[in-house]
Amino acid sequence: MCLTCGCMEAHREMGDNVTYEDLKRMADGNGQSVEETLDIVARTADIDRREHPREYGEGGPRPA
Fold first, then answer.
1. Which residues contact 63 (CB under 8 A, 6 or more apart)?
2. pTM over the 0.85 mark
């Protein structure tokens, strides 16, 4: 895509990024919709961000 690089072209393959097609394949494999999968990713990231703020660039440098 790029769902991840910022080009705003969800189906464009470039570099080491996630495409819509990747996300759709993952959703199908888990018996979910793309929307459900995006919601799960967002909720999981919110929880992980609170538990590991340094990994998200918050609270100082990331551990090596």
1. 54
2. no
